[in-house]
Amino acid sequence: MKSMAKWTSLLFVASISLMFSLASLATVPEPAKPVNTAVAGSDDRAFVEQALHSGQMEVAMARIAQEKAADQSVKETARMLEREHEELNRKLQGLLTTAPGASSQGTLSQAQIAAANADMKTMQELQGDRFDSEYVAMMVMHHNASILKFEEASNNEKLSAGVKQLALDALPTLRRHAAAAQGLQASLAAR
After folding, report:
1. What is the mean pLDDT of each successive set of 10 residues along the chain, which is 191 residues long?
2. In terms of Cα–Cα distance, which of 191, 138, 183 is closest to 16?
3. 161-189 and 42-68 are packed helices; what angle lies between their axes, rounded to 10 degrees?
4. ∠ at Cα 64 (145, 141), nearest 5°?
5. Phi, psi of 176 (to 5 degrees)
């Protein structure tokens, strides 16, 4: 069980890192200043910040896919991902506030950001069908990792009730996204 949690955390961090780098190359608006309800503790803050960064990268990558994808279904799925991740990002942002002692640095390390930047550069260089297959594979991997992390958060006794509920509420959407990406992956492979 410990190795599963470690693997899940590693996949989630890798997913977030890649997605963080995508935003650095895409046009992503600056995150709004945190507002509303403060997260209860550092565990809450770490989960919410990482989930928010991941969601922002999903949006950034979806925007890139809408421009670079060759397949219309990939473009349509990217539009849906952008719209629905923006909605989830607003909810995550609503949980953050400038709490006393809160770090303005975020929870992603420079090493994670550097690794993600390398992956993003590779994606930026791809075109057409190759871009489609790599983008869809990345969406399958990232959403599967996010599902595991959100499932873990929804059952984590260290997290506040509000954060656990948001994680639980987001799971159906993340599962639908993963299923859509898996369907696209099968469709692209069949060609």
Report:
1. 48 47 44 44 87 87 92 96 96 69 54 69 87 95 95 95 95 97 95 83
2. 138
3. 30
4. 15
5. -65, -40
In the numeric block, which tokens belong to residue 1?
Answer: 């069980």
CATH code of the domain covering residue 183 = 1.20.1260.10
User: Residue 70: what residue type?
Assistant: A
The tally of domains found in the chain comes to 1
Three-state SS sequence of the chain: CHHHHHHHHHHHHHHHHHHHHHHHHCCCCCCCCCCCCCCCCHHHHHHHHHHHHHHHHHHHHHHHHHHHCCCHHHHHHHHHHHHHHHHHHHHHHHHCCCCCCCCCCCCCCHHHHHHHHHHHHHHHHCCHHHHHHHHHHHHHHHHHHHHHHHHHHHCCCCCCHHHHHHHHHHHHHHHHHHHHHHHHHHHHHCC
Q: Token match 């799971």: residue?
A: 171
Question: What pTM value is reported for the model?
Answer: 0.74
Burial class (CB in 10 A: 0-12, 13-18, 19+), 153: buried
Domain that holds residue 156: 2-189
* Chain center to CA of 2: 23
Nearest to 23 by CA among 51, 48, 56, 55: 56
pLDDT at residue 108, as a whole number: 64
